Description:
It holds the Pfam family Nitroreductase. The protein is of the alpha/beta class. The chain has helices spanning 20-25, 34-46, 60-71, 90-108, 113-121, 126-129, 156-174, 187-193, 219-222, 270-281, 292-303, 334-344, 349-356, 397-415, 429-441, 445-448, 457-474, 476-479, 485-492, 495-509, 519-531, 550-557, 573-591, and strands at residues 82-87, 132-139, 178-182, 200-209, 312-318, 359-365, 378-379, 419-425, 514-516, 539-541. It folds into three domains: 47-216, NADH Oxidase, CATH 3.40.109; 265-308, no CATH class; 309-557, Nicotinate-nucleotide-dimethylbenzimidazole phosphoribosyltransferase (CobT), large domain (Rossmann fold, 3-Layer(aba) Sandwich). The chain has 23 helices and ten strands. The protein has a six-stranded parallel sheet, with helices on both faces. It has a four-stranded antiparallel sheet with strand order 1-2-4-3, sandwiched between helices. β9 (514-516), α21 (519-531) and β10 form a beta-alpha-beta unit. α4 runs antiparallel to α22 and α14 (397-415) packs across α20. The termini are far apart.
Amino acid sequence: MADRDAWPRPRPLVGDASSARERAADPAGWAFAPEVVTALDDVIAGRRDIRRFRPDPVPEDLLTEVLTAGHQAPSVGHSQPWRFIVVRDPSTRDRAAHLADRARLDQAAQLTNERAARMLDLKLEGLREAPVGVVVVCDRRTPAAGVLGRATFPDADLWSCACAIENMWLAARARGLGMGWVTLFDPDALSALLDLPEGVVPMGWMCLGWPDERPPAPGLERAAWSRRMPLADVVMHDRWRDEAGAGPTQPVSHLDTRAERAGRADALPPESLVSATDDADALLSPPESLGVLDRVVSRVEALGRGRTPLSGTLVLAGAAHPVSGLGVSAFDDRVTRDVLEAAAAGESMGAVSARSAGLGVVVVDAGVPGNSAVRGALAARPEHPRGDLATSDALDRHDVDQLLDIGRRIGQGAARTGLVALGEVGIGNTTVAAALACAVTGLSPRDAVGVGAGADADIVERKRAVVEQALSRCGPRVEAWRDDPADLLVALGGAEIAVLTGVVLGAAGAGAPVILDGLAGSLPGVLAAALDPAVQGHLVAGQRSRELAHDAVLRALGLEPLLSLRLRSGEGVGACLAASLVLQGMRIRRGVARTAP
Length: 597
């Protein structure tokens, strides 16, 4: 024994083969080579939240490598709570984009005006453009007390999933792929879209694909939203407060806390949207220099693959409403027929607005007062008696189905001309629209009912009472309206709104953009999108009117209006003004000089 200096240390064939002596002699011996460290630093520094994507497919092996990196993340109690849902279906992606658009507008409504404008400028089209979506969800069905480390920090499983997302992000960046983490969703709505079981929660939607931008700095920093804080501002020693008794400042809030703020359509083709955006980037002009209009033009050009005609059609539908007999309007029911006759003669506000915008006009008689159809109008008059909302259903189911079919055919025909603008006329239809708006947005009658055309305080109170009666009468049918949107038209709708809902379905099914008008002229978009979610990608909010509920309806659609002129004319006037603006935007896009590659 004394003849030997030391016995060789047995080295385990599994696990950690190092010895305490080796670790003490070289504490940094576990480090990677300097070139690996440099590469890792470069990847971390170069990670970006990508918002624009090429349509080129992501090879399956690269997708697997990114998911594998996520699966190698650390997790509390080695529980591996992450699950990855790979989404390629265009219709699912389009519906997700609709949810995000709605949430974006909802959040913007809570911010200061300046911050809201900046937020609305942020691009979210990656949900449609990126060829792959990966929804990372956290399986929380195991009780926290049963997972090592979660009994005291029950949300550590969520943090584990965030680690998986960061791993995916870095792996994607290192391979030249772009990833964008989108959390502008109502979590319950996203869960419903993906059929997530109770206890499995979404962490967000990861847009994954080849980037169509190569940002040198984080997007929000480039957009002047915020700047990265110095490291010294976020590091403390031993306790929260430093020697001077002051800790780091809290993250900035941009909330507005002022007291006064309280045929089925195809999904929008991602490759076409990318192409339209690329074309806009080539203009001799700053990116998105036309603001909201630029985005609308990109969507319109994407739908038509750059060949959308520089023209369009106003579809103007009119109908009588028995609810007008309950004292909810300042005008006689006969006015509806007068306006529709003037429209057929080309002399109404809507018809003149359409002509001024370069649009044709299709006038639809969906049952205006009188025993005969309006001369020069397409006849779509209901066959059965109509109700007053308060005591009986507005329409018969057979009539609703027929009106939807007629509208589809009209929309398909109008789509061949380019833009399709919606217009309506009907004494009493602001009451109908308020009732429908309450049903689809959850607003109370007090928050939804506006003054309409010339109403006084007494009329407004009668309108609110009628809407309350109608909602109470329909009860569960209102709560379940998404299961059968046509039944909501039976219960609370108007014949002109039913026709225009069909017009939206037909026009979108034919690939045309549809420009909505005021409250009654926007509800067909909500109902059509409920019948066919892909419709939402075809909709343009022409304006925000004076009606109280209109803003909530546009938020439900996830649409930002082009105009806000406090219009109350109806007849599609706002839609025509917006259509004129869109057509000008298209001419600008097509006529401006291009820069060299």
